[in-house]
Amino acid sequence: MKKYWKILRRYKTSFLLSPLLVFVLVLSETAQPMLMARIVDDGVMRQDIPFITRFGIYMVPISLVGLVASIANIYVSSRASIGFGTDLRSTLFRRIQEFSFSDIDEFSTASLITQLTNDITRIQMVVQVSLRLLLRSPLMLIVALFFVSRINKDLLWILAVSVPALALSLYIILRKGFPFFVQAQEKLDQLNAVIQENLINIRVVKSFVREDFETRKFVRSSEELRDKVIRASNIVVTMFPVLQLVMNGSILAVLWFGGRKIMAGSLQVGELISVVTYLSQILFSLMMLSMIIMTFARASASSERIREVLDKEPSLTDTPEGAKDLYRVERGEVVFDRVNFRYRGRETDVLHDISFHVRPAETVAVVGATGSAKSSLVQLIPRLYDIRSGEILIDGRNILDYHLETLREGVSVVLQKNVLFTGTIRENLLWGDPNATQEEIEEAARAADAHDFIVSFPEGYDTELGRGGVNVSGGQKQRLCIARALLRKPKILILDDSTSAVDSNTEQKIRASLKNLLTDTTVFIITQRINTMQTSDRVMILDDGAIVALGTPAELLQTSEVYREIYNSQQIVP
After folding, report:
1. How far is 290 from 235, CA to CA, in rounded Å?
2. Crossing angle, helix 269-310 and helix 239-264, to 10 degrees?
3. Are 566 and 539 in contact (CB under 8 A)?
4. pLDDT in tens, 307-325
5. Is 518 helix (H, G, I), strand (E, B) or coil?
6. d(CA 102, CA 307)
7. What DSSP line would sit under 126-184, residue for residue?
8. Model confidence over 230-279: pLDDT tens digits?
């Protein structure tokens, strides 16, 4: 709860003002039955019109005060609860942004989306209900009991029986219903996962004509959610008939015993009416309290999921030395010294005893079969993951000594899966350098062989891209991602098989442009093309997470059987 209180403190004025408004509202509501009793007993029964008029006038400002207090409390509680929800959502989103790749892998994307939307809405509702009803219910109960005792203490025993009976019934109902709220949230996660997966892969679904299969999967997941919600709702709605039973039984008892007292002359008609009204207020306050408890119960499941994310400390953070932000990537020299790495939850390493030295401005082609851990190796350079043992040096300094942001500013990565964001082409390219000029943007686009197709669009660089860049081809998307990385002018550039969707001639044009634009940049290229290997300074061959060969193309052609097989398979003539 400490993490919630940090946010709630921002709305302390609302939390101080709301109880005062609730107190005024309760007093105005509970004063009405007493005034009504006086009007009936001292006015109506005695046919005293001036008395009825006078007390009727008293009730008007009391009602207006209650109305103003109610409206003010609604405004205050809404403003605080919505603000809290917005701030909590921002806090949760910032924490997710702090997670490393391995941290993100612990939470499903669908679950995180549910937490940022549905779960936070439930927590927000708790704050709103707390400010409006949490104090009002017990306060109404206490004040109403006080007035009943002032009227006739002998009738209190009816409340002494009905109130505990209702409270016990509500407790049993909520206790049985709570597990279904948790299960309903889990089913909602599953439904969101089905929707997300379908929308992301909609082209694959249509290509394989699997619409019916996906529809059945969605319907099945939706029906499972429906069943859990219905079971929870069926248990909860039993509160209403229970409340009705207790309330009607209590009113009947009050009328029976109160009527006998009226006939005995120890109770007046107006007082009996006011007791019935107070009884309704008391039982209604208990009903409101049960609704609050139900809201808390439903939100507690959401809160546990949110706190799980908020309490999760990022596994990849700045070291004390790195936090000082003293160093910059200036030359691009990279050294791996006996590096071992495994993904979280794996029992074996995916990289074994990796050692190599890459000089500044050198281009290294990283080659290997699928699953040889090529991508895993290059992702260690900008600390997207942390190694298990060994040491990685950039410019002679351990990467742990660099501030994370500074390190990644000096290392541009074009990942194997190219991602663009909704917005214009210019806005996507400016991710590389938000302060870049139009000339710099065009220079990077030309180097990535993207300028010509960009200007062929009617809107040019202001062309709107759909979600994920759906309105450009795979090759165009790759070239835009490369241009975005080049705009940063990094000292180390990593191309993770990022030209696989372009032809060999286009790739060679991009490679030539890179040498002209980034003359002092160290480049790692994951590739399967022999042309790219041949034009690199050195080639690193990985097999099962280990380096099996490292040298110039000419050296490997003489010493590495694996390299010769690649060379001969692509029919390259020396």
Report:
1. 13
2. 160
3. no
4. 888 888 888 888 899 899 8
5. coil
6. 19
7. HHHHIIIIITHHHHHHHHHHHHHHHH-GGGHHHHHHHHHHHHHHHHHHHHHHHHHHHHH
8. 877 777 677 677 777 777 787 788 788 878 888 877 778 887 888 888 87
Strand partners, 373: none
Three-state SS annotation for 422-462: CEEHHHHHCCCCCCCCHHHHHHHHHHCCCHHHHHCCCCHHH
CA 419, 318, 387, 367 torsion: positive or negative?
Answer: positive
Q: Are 340 and 421 in contact (CB under 8 A)?
A: no
- Interval 440-465 mean pLDDT: 89
d(CA 94, CA 91): 5
Query: Cα(490)–Cα(507) distance, rounded to whole angstroms?
Result: 20
Render 251-298 in DSSP notation, one character per residue: HHHHHHHHHHHHHHTSS-HHHHHHHHHHHHHHHHHHHHHHHHHHHHHH
* DSSP string of 226-250, one letter each residue: HHHHHHHHHHHHTHHHHHHHHHHHH
How many C-beta neighbours within 10 Å does residue 450 have?
27
> 7, exposed or middle or buried, with CB in 10 Å at 0-12, 13-18, 19+?
middle
For residue range 325-346, list pLDDT tens digits in order. 899 999 999 999 999 999 887 8
